[in-house]
Amino acid sequence: MNILQELQYRGLIHQLTDEEGLAKKLSEEPVVLYAGFDPTADSLHIGHLLPILCLKRFQMAGHLPIALVGGGTGLIGDPSGRSTERSLNTQDVVEEWTEKLRGQLSRFLDFDSSVNPARMANNYNWLGDLNVITFLRDIGKNFSVNYMLAKDSVDSRIGNGISFTEFSYMILQAYDFMRLNSDVNCSLQVGGSDQWGNITAGLELIGKTTGNKAFGLTMPLVTKSDGSKFGKTAGGAVWLDPDKTSPYQFYQFWINTHDNDAVKFLKYFTFLPHEEIARLEAQVSESPEKREAQRVLAREVTELVHGKEATDSAIKISEVLFSGNVDTLTGREIEDAFQDVPSTEVSGEIALIDLLLAVKAAPSKRQAKQDIESGAVSLNGTKVTELDKVLQQSDLLEGKYIVIRRGKRNYYLAKFV
Question: Binding site: residue ranges?
């Protein structure tokens, strides 16, 4: 199966220019391709995974990917998929975020391959020195306003207004493609479906200025079957930076995938062979309660992004919380596991009843006593029924933590300082 057939099987082709021509070129020689990532935050999020993994799939098939970080276009702002103008960031901020994104991208591609090494690029290297007169005469002259207004990224903004700054973004991205085509023979750009207008503008510019043949491929917008937005949780975006979204939280996002999305996401976000995906698809149909597809999906994607050690830790936390044996967790695992539960700092020796009040596990001493006597309270995974229990240093996990559980699902975290 060639790379286009592989992408087709996985549902990763939304739009493609000249499929026959591209298939022929891919079969004849290694093709240089690129995807762009603008530094609009200090981390990539899981919405970026499709284009990142698309580059990786092409590299595994013997082609030459370029990860382009938009240090230049990040100063302008892409109107694609937005109803309002972006806030402009300072150059210092964009430079800082550019370096962080370069570090994240470097984890996914093989830059040391002796056969088809990946490359990193920053479009500020050519956009930063671009003379405005040269740009308007040599580049802008190739685009009519009518052509630009017809693009969805611009047309969708006409009603609310669009600045000349963001209106010009399409031409800047087209210039990126032209430069990469001229400098390193890059002939394919891949991106999300919202980038179709920008990608085809690049093809237009290449054709007019060099006469070279180039291609564009977009992937579908990732959606969830229930209509909710992919990549969002109650806490916001799901980031690739472990300091913004912990590996445990990342793992939990995937483990909670709906049955209707599990197989689609296995195809999108993993490199599992077709036979394994077919087996898991059958499991979803025959034994959905086992949630094997979700467990495999969560393990595969978390390991891909965060590595095996962090993934093993995330799985351990999940199993511990299910069993209640929290005393086996490390301090870092406790912090990760209970990031989203009520957390309270306490100091010195404290009676259990007062602790339940302090962490708001009980509204009154009377209720706290009833909960303890009925066996509804556990400390660090052990049920406690002593009304006069006083917490000592020996009761703390890692010398600092008490994990309180009231009932089956209500967790609270006390940090002793």
Answer: 34, 169, 173, 232
CA of 74: how far to CAs of 147, 163, 375, in Å? 23, 15, 57
Give percent of the chain above pLDDT 70: 99
Write down the pTM of the prediction. Answer: 0.86
Secondary structure (3-state) at 76: coil
| Residues 327/381, Cβ–Cβ less than 8 Å | yes
What fold does the segment set 232-323 form as a domain? Answer: Tyrosyl-Transfer RNA Synthetase (1.10.240)
Calculated CA dihedral for residues 49, 85, 201, 174, nearest 10 degrees: -70
Q: Are 116 and 59 in contact (CB under 8 A)?
A: yes
d(CA 166, CA 86): 9
Predicted pLDDT at 156: 78
Q: Give me Rg for the CA atoms of the chain.
A: 26
Please name the amino acid found at residue 77: G
pLDDT confidence of residue 5:
96
Binding residues for L-tyrosine: 34, 169, 173
Closest CA to 195 of 207, 205, 184, 203: 203
Q: Where in the chain is the domain with CATH 1.10.240.10?
A: 232-323
Strands (E), 18-129: 32-37, 64-69, 119-122
Listed in order, the ranges of the chain carrying CATH 3.40.50.620 are 3-219
Determine the topology of domain 343-416 in CATH.
Answer: 3.10.290
- Domain 3-219, CATH number (from 3.30.70.100, 3.90.1150.10, 2.60.40.1260, 3.40.50.620): 3.40.50.620
How is residue 91 written in tokens? 């150059």
Q: What stretch of H or E contains 147?
A: helix 145-149
Contact criterion met (CB below 8 Å) for 173 and 198: yes
In the block, which residue shows the tokens 């600092």? 400
Mean pLDDT over 384-402 rounds to: 88
115 touches 61 (CB < 8 A): no
Residues contributing to the annotated binding site for ATP: 232
